[in-house]
Amino acid sequence: xxxxxxxxxxxxxxxxxxxxxxxxxxxxxxxxxxxxxxxxxxxxxxxxxxxxxxxxxxxxxxxxxxxxxxxxxxxxxxxxxxxxxxxxxxxxxxxxxxxxxxxxxxxxxxxxxxx
Amino acid sequence: xxxxxxxxxxxxxxxxxxxxxxxxxxxxxxxxxxxxxxxxxxxxxxxxxxxxxxxxxxxxxxxxxxxxxxxxxxxxxxxxxxxxxxxxxxxxxxxxxxxxxxxxxxxxxxxxxxx
Lengths: 115, 115
Prior knowledge:
The structure holds 2 protein chains of 2 kinds. By secondary structure, chain A is mostly beta strands. Chain A is 0% helix and 57% strand.
């Protein structure tokens, strides 16, 4: 069966500090991978999307970046955090391809507070 | 562009009663998929049910059913026989045929089941 891991679960970082959030998927190959951010009580904002190693699509201009160094590893980074980067970050995977019937599977999330 | 609108920020339902969560969508894609996800207070997103734009019948999964009205562009989630464990945030989402598997999410509805 497939599983998705995210770490850390919670993080408190000062403004201007770097960020690295990691997501790994087990039990599947060549998944589509996603990073979302969720503000309190709001919906999900798609940040980055990847269909393969080294292939990253950015959806929203920001001071965040993403990388996919391995097939089942997706990393969200920042060189200098802003207060507005606070939120709940969710990683998700989906079966490869563009089939409309494929649901997404989400990790447990990382709650980031920038102070 | 795609848009999902969930007009009910919060809903209350008595235990064992049915409840309908509203979702309307807008897309120019001729083919699309509609999804509902549940997010308990723990934060993890859980897939509930899927409806394809060309499906002739409304989707059902246990106590969940999707009331799909294509002409009205609505995809309401019906939960029958509500349970206390159904208290959570519920998100409607869609994927269009032309957007390479990227989901658009609504802002969600918080459902509270009263004993």
